[in-house]
Amino acid sequence: MMQLDAAVQDGLQFLQSRQMPSGQFPVEMTTISNGVTRVEPDDALFSTAHIIYSIGQIPDPVAIGITNLGLDYFQNEMTGHGLWRHWNKDSVRAGRRLAPFIPADLDDMCCISYLLRRHGRQYPDNKRLVALNRNRAGLFYTWEVITVRATIVPGLEVPSYVEKLRGGGGKNCRAAVCGGMNCRSDVGYLSNVMVAKARHPCLCRIK
Fold first, then answer.
1. What DSSP element (H or E) covers 61?
2. Please, what's the b/e burial string for 97-130 (b: 16 or more CB within 10 A of its CB; e: otherwise)?
3. Torsion angle in degrees (nearest 10) through CA of 73, 78, 84, 86
4. ∠86-183-162 over CA atoms, to 5°?
5. Using CA atoms, how far apart are residues 36 and 23, in angstroms rounded to an integer?
6. Cβ atoms of residues 134 and 141 within 8 Å
7. N vs C: which end of the chain shows fewer Cβ within 10 Å?
8. Nearest to 110 by CA among 92, 97, 91, 123
């Protein structure tokens, strides 16, 4: 038991030493293309969410401190009505900030919402936005881009609900979900990013 406790403490000390002042954990993305290996920072919230989930119930002052800083990070990264993107607000690819070009995504929204709720942090109720992001068969989409005609939520006036979330002005439901950006106009850039990522094997690890 003492060896187990010592191992946990070693792990917590390592995580504490790597956590950034913002609360994020630095992660690297490794791509391999034509025999060439490239390593670059990957500013994804997803990795930090899994670390906070893993240590969030350890009754230890170090674990509690790491968790609270991580929860602060998630709250600072929130946009719109309880929305989170895969990459943080400052993430850059090919010289361009990603935030204006990508919508929120369901994986990060659900994982981070669960963590905030488990630890008693406040955030807007986003369950309806999650429910809206399904097709008629009930399958969830990854990217949080509402398609009004495909919604399966009974009794919900989608246009008025989305309009309420974005505070009035305009009827672009997709822009409402993405915090005011027009996803459709930037879908070409987004597609290029995702296709390029899908073509190369990727490994992520804490630096």
1. helix 61-77
2. ebbebbbbbbbbbbbbbebbeebeeebeebebbe
3. -40
4. 90
5. 32
6. yes
7. N
8. 123
pLDDT of amino acid 147: 57
Q: What is the pLDDT of residue 89?
A: 93
Of the candidates 42, 177, 174, 23, the one whose C-alpha atom is nearest the C-alpha of residue 98 is: 42
Q: Which residue has the tokens 């060896």?
A: 3
Return phi, psi of residue 145, to 5°: -125, 100
Is residue 102 predicted with pLDDT exceeding 50? yes
Least confident piece of the model among 18-27, 105-114, 142-151, 198-207: 198-207
**20 token code pair:** 């950034």
3-class SS of residue 3: helix
- Calculate the dihedral angle through the C-alpha atoms of 81, 85, 91, 94, rounding to the nearest 10 degrees: -120
Contact between 87 and 44 under an 8 Å Cβ cutoff? The reply is yes
Q: Are the C-beta atoms of residues 175 and 183 closer than 8 Å to each other?
A: yes
Q: How many CB atoms neighbour CB 54 within 10 A?
A: 13
Q: Model's pTM, two decimal places?
A: 0.71
Vertex 185 angle, CA 27 and 97, to 5°: 30
134 CB-near residues (< 8 Å, 6+ apart): 140, 141, 150, 151, 152
Separation of CA 170 from chain center = 26
